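User: Okay, second chain of the day. Same drill as before: sequence in, C-alpha cells out.
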Amino acid sequence: MKISAVIIALNEEDRIRDTLDSCLEVADEIVVVDSYSTDKTVEIAREFGARIFQKKFIDYGSQKNFAIEKAENEWILNLDADERVSPRLKEEILKLKAQEEIEADGFLINRKTFYMGRWIKHSGWYPDRKLRLFKKEKSRWRGRIHEGLILTGRTGRIGGDILHYTYRDMSDHVLRMNKYSYMQAEDIVKNKKKFLYLRALLLPAITFLRFYVWKAGFLDGFPGFVIALVSSWTTGMKYMKAIEIKKVKNQDKK
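Assistant: Same drill. C-alpha cells below.
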C-alpha cells in the first residue's frame, strides 16, 4: 500500500509546515496544489520534497480533483493545509500499510477541531467523520464548498483523528463564512430553491437551536455559543444574498 498525501493551499506559510511534517512517516509522496500563493507556502513545501503544482482556484471540489489526478500512488490521504495527522492516526495508517490485503476502498476518519483555544467535542463538529484515505481510481470530489467525496466501493473506518486547526481568529471565521455564504447563495439560485424570504426568516433561528441545543453546543462553553451564532448568521446571509442575486438576474432579463 503506497500513499500519496495531497494538500491544496493558498497562503498557508503559518500552518502548512506542521501539516507536511505530520504526514511524512505515512506518505510515500506529497502533492501540493497551490493557488498562486504570495507568501512562503511553496518554498516550505519544497523543503519537504513535495511535488508542487499550481492551479487558479475555482472551487474546492475541482481543486481537490486536480490534486488527486496528479498523485502517482493508488491510495490518497487528503489533508487541508490547516489539518494534521494525529499520533494515533499515524499508528493506525502504518498498521494498515503493513497488511497484505486491504478489503476497504476508502476509510472514514474522525476530525477533531481546535477553536477559540479548545478542542470542540460537540456542536456538530465532533466526531466529524470524513472520507480522507481512499483509492484514487474509485473516488471523485463533488461540491464547490463543503465538498464531499463520492466513493465507488466499500467504506471502512480507521482509528485516530485528523486534527483540524481551523480559523486563525474570529475575523478569519467571519471572513470565510462571508465568502462561503456567497458561493452557497449562487448554488441556491442555480438550483431554483423557492420561498427564499421565508427561509431567510426562519432558518437562522433553527440553525442556532440545531448547533447549540440539539448538537449540544452548550457543552462546549462560550466557543459552542459562538459556533451556533456564526452558523445562524451564515444561514441568514446565504438566503439574503440569494434573494439579491435573483433580483439582479431578473432585472438583467428585462
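The longest strand covers residues 155-165.

User: Thanks, on to the next one.
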